[in-house]
Amino acid sequence: MVLRDPDTARLACLGGEPAFERPIPVGQLYFPSWDRYEQAMSGIFERGWYTNHGPLARELEQRLAAFFGVKHAVVVTNATVGLMMALKCLGLAGKVLVPGFTFVASAQAVTWAGLDVEFCDVDPVTHQVTEETLTAALDADVSAILAVNLWGGTCRPTEIAAFAREHGLKLVFDSAHGVGVSCDGVSLGGFGDAEVFSFHATKVLSATEGGCVCTNDDELAAKLRNMRSSYGSGTPAQVPLTSNGRFSEAQAAVALMSLDDFAANRGRNERIHGLYRQGLDGIAGLSLVIPADTDHSNYQYAVVDVDEDAYGLSRDTLLKALRAEQVIVRRYFHPGVHRTVPYSAEPGRWQLPVTDRLCTRLLQLPIGALVSDEDSLQVVELVGRIGANSAAVAEALGLGA
Ligand SMILES: *Cc1c(COP(=O)(O)O)cnc(C)c1O
């Protein structure tokens, strides 16, 4: 933390200096030390092996299968491609149920797989899909559910799996937020037909870009490996289409280091999450979202709910005021996926009042490897001071209180 202007309480949006000298990002952004990175890359150079299921990709798949407690962890270019491949391999037809409150990739993967998206709403408290929200959107054309485990919490996957079985539906989880998260003592990874994890740089386990598809189904795993590439495919399997989901050795090297450091990075997230929770508790109208239904979260996100009436400013005004301080907060998710192209072409089709409401209230605060304890305390202090000066802030930002 660098307080540029420690002698004055002037907020940047009121003409003061920004509180931070450099931008404080949202997103995990893990970087190993340069020495470790160099050592890993020199091994790749010595072996002369860049990609095509090399030794590091193979080692990573074994370590991930143990980490997630599953038979197969198939590493792929990124989670979006992993979702597309999983849906394609399951041989689905018709519609797939997807929550409107998720990252666009969840729904886009369904569309890329040649299937129809049918949106459902989420629970107002946990933000997760539930049996109730799925039931409200279910019809005879639905062949599968793409459930999302959000915010380092879970959508109670055992119950969602029972619901899918009862209705004869295939089930894939978008667990891009869920690396290292467990529910009732069981790690995410083995629920449903497949679970897809993201190793994007902003996620807690990073390969810079990357992801994996976890499954306990041998046949599905063989199909995924054949669809990914002819390299490392092992058992031949018929697939409707092939793709390129290959994972490079450079990606695998970073992912292996990130896996070594996972417990430390998770612990740091938990500590910062706790500091936010404690600090925001004392500010009227703000509350930190607690990851739902998990006994072991990765605290990948610090999500604050802004009650405009009680706080005195809207979420969007708070966002502008914090950005002026170099705190690069984000509206995530905004808007609901049902309001984005191509789904917005049918504006009247989906009524998702909870999704719409959450999209106006939630803000992502900085958390991750580039955020210190002091940074998070400074963010809390700023948020309090912005709220205490709500009338002046609203006037300065021209947005009305
Ligand atoms: C990050 C993310 C994805 C996409 O992951 P990529 O690896 O970037 O393709 C999908 N779904 C959710 C919920 C995500 O947060």
Question: What does this protein look like?
Answer:
This protein has 401 residues and is α/β, with parallel strands linked by helices. The protein has 14 helices and 12 strands. The strands form 3 sheets. It has a 7-stranded mixed β-sheet, with helices on both faces. Strand 4, helix 6 and strand 5 form a beta-alpha-beta unit. Helix 3 packs across helix 4. The radius of gyration is 22 Å and the shape is globular. The site of pyridoxal-5'-phosphate (PLP) has 14 residues, from helix 3 and helix 4.
Question: What are the segments in which pLDDT stays under 50 over at least 5 consecutive residues?
Answer: none
Structural class computed from helices and strand pairing? alpha/beta
Percent of residues in helices comes to: 25-40%
Instruction: Give the DSSP E fraction (strand runs of 2 or more residues).
Output: 5-15%
Distance between the termini: 29 Å
Overall average residue pLDDT: 96
Task: Describe what is shown at a glance.
With 401 residues, this protein is of the alpha/beta class. The chain has helices at 34-47, 55-68, 79-89, 104-112, 131-137, 157-166, 218-228, 249-260, 262-281, 308-311, 315-324, 353-361, 373-388, 390-396, and strands spanning 72-76, 95-99, 116-120, 142-148, 170-174, 182-183, 186-187, 194-198, 211-215, 286-288, 302-306, 362-365.
